[in-house]
């Protein structure tokens, strides 16, 4: 990119993501990204005052790419609410597992940011819980699920499935029994949301 | 300890634990433990061929001290099975949280060993799942819980509560909402094991 073009936030984040992938999150500096964009590091610091700010912004954009297809899934209406909920959870789990293998630098950065940028992660989790709440509300309306507080149920399900999607657990996802373990937890959850209706 | 006394495994592990607490798991060597016991490091290497073996053995002993009081809780028979199960889970969670604060060196070593010594950790988890299975079986017998496979339910509950007792999550245990989050997950679990009976 020539340095006489307007520098959009999107262009910076795209360049930053590429540089982060090439050098790894630990070694990438704001100056490296400025070089890739052929702008002065002063220009870049006006947008992102620190390496931490840049990392957070790149991670936030990456998380939106995870949440987007899940939002589409949450908006679908075919099949039972139980099928949709399971399919949504499986999509969340699959997207995280795929990232560990196919995009390890970005996944590593997201894992690190999870420990630091609490507000941004809380917002991402809140978005995912809203998506699940939407599915659960539909299941309550059709009496497929017991009445109760759909948002509280969604939170409980998100936390009860942490083992399968939280980055702190990524080291267990290659276990031969991980899918079988998810089946057990899913059976418990399904009885928990359908059971006492 | 004078070096003409017999060197029991217990005495070595006790000394090793004290040395590990003093120097931290990273800095402690087998030689440090030999010095504390006033024996040659050759003598100690006959018992523990590597630093990793020593760390595993100390962690294993530490985990048995966690599992012991839980076994007593699992053997109790007063109150409902639901109360006993919740009280058992709370005791597991409390013992882990207490360790983070009061025994950070041992907890840190246990966290590290969790990623490495898979067999030993699997055995510990298996022991805890057996204890929960015992409580759930009693609840199934009295029809407080739905019929099903108590061991599978115990596994599911152990995994669904990972966030609250697995060391990879320790950084979240100081959150102001952690107890409230456990309440939500517990409600889901309780309906899951009682619901469809």
Features:
homodimer; 197 residues; mainly alpha; Tetracycline Repressor, domain 2; 2 domains; elongated; transcription regulation (chains A, B); AcrR family transcriptional regulator (chains A, B)
Task: Give a short summary of the structure.
The first copy, chain A, is mainly alpha-helical and 197 residues long. The first copy, chain A, is 74% helix and 0% strand. The first copy, chain A, folds into two domains: 9-47, Arc Repressor Mutant, subunit A (Orthogonal Bundle); 56-194, Tetracycline Repressor, domain 2 (Orthogonal Bundle).
Sheet bearing the most strands of chain A, described?
none
Q: Estimate what percentage of residues of chain A fall within beta strands.
A: under 5%
Number of strands of chain A: 0
Q: What's the level 1 CATH class of the largest domain in chain A?
A: Mainly Alpha
Quaternary structure: homodimer
Q: What sort of overall outline of chain A do the alpha carbons produce when their principal axes are compared?
A: elongated
Number of helices of chain A: 10
The run of helices and strands of chain A is HHHHHHHHHH
Number of domains of chain A: 2
Q: Gyration radius of chain A, to the nearest Å?
A: 20 Å
CATH superfamily of the largest domain in chain A: Tetracycline Repressor, domain 2
| Helix-and-strand structural type of chain A | mainly alpha
Helix percent band of chain A? over 70%
List unreliable stretches of 5+ residues of chain A.
none
Cα separation of the termini of chain A: 59 Å
| Arithmetic mean of pLDDT of chain A | 91
The third-level CATH topology of the largest domain in chain A is: Tetracycline Repressor, domain 2
Q: Please give the most extensive interface between any two protein chains, plus how many residues each contributes.
A: A-B, 29 and 29 residues
CATH architecture of the largest domain in chain A: Orthogonal Bundle
Pfam families (chains A, B): TetR_C_27, TetR_N
Domain HTH tetR-type (chains A, B): 6-66
Protein name (chains A, B): AcrR family transcriptional regulator
Keywords (chains A, B): DNA-binding, Transcription, Transcription regulation
């Amino acid at each position: 990119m020539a340095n006489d073009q307007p520098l959009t936030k999107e262009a910076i984040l795209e360049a930053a993501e590429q540089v982060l992938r090439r050098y790894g999150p630990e070694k990438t500096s704001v100056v490296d990204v400025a070089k890739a964009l052929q702008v002065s590091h002063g220009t870049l610091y006006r947008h992102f005052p620190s390496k931490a700010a840049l990392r957070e912004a790149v991670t936030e954009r990456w998380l939106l790419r995870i949440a987007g297809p899940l939002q589409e899934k949450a908006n679908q209406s075919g099949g039972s609410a139980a099928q949709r909920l399971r399919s949504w959870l499986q999509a969340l789990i699959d997207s995280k597992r795929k990232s560990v293998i196919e995009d390890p630098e970005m996944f590593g950065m997201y894992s690190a940011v999870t420990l630091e940028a609490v507000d941004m992660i809380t917002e991402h989790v809140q978005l995912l819980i809203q998506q699940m709440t939407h599915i659960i509300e539909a299941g309550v309306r059709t009496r497929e699920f017991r009445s109760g507080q759909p948002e509280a149920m969604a939170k409980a399900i998100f936390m009860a499935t942490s083992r399968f999607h939280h980055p702190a657990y990524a080291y267990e996802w290659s276990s031969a029994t991980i899918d079988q373990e998810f089946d057990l937890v899913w059976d418990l959850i399904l009885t928990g949301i359908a059971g006492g209706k």
